[in-house]
Amino acid sequence: MRTRMSSASVRGDFVTQVETISGQSLLACNQCGKCSAGCPVAFSMDVLPSQVIRLAQLGIQDVLESQTIWTCAACLTCVSRCPKGIDLPRVMEALRLIHMENTGNVIETTNVPEEMVAELPQLALIGGFRKYSR
Length: 134
Fold this sequence. Notes:
Order of helices and strands: HHHHHHHHH
Strand content: under 5%
Number of domains: 1
Shape: globular
Distance between the termini: 46 Å
Number of helices: 9
Largest sheet: none
Structural class: mainly alpha
Number of strands: 0
């Protein structure tokens, strides 16, 4: 006798949560790497954008500890290069939101260089504009 499993139980709650918040299908990414190759701030990331997607696809919540989700400038270069049309900055925003929910809305800046801390509000402004402008 076969039992039918929901997609949430197969893919995991974390993956479903990221997809729900971002509105993007993580499994649509085929890991071509064009997002990482074109990212203008990839040089300063600890995990490349394509690796962020892969970790999220696998439900590995360690991705929430990556500095990359805070480094993303939401410039949309990755979106214009993606053959699948995945809006990676929306995924980054979803991961930031999940991180803030998990940590009580506190952003740890102890490992972030001082010059970057001054830029964080700009990133929040860009993320907020993208989220609420549609």
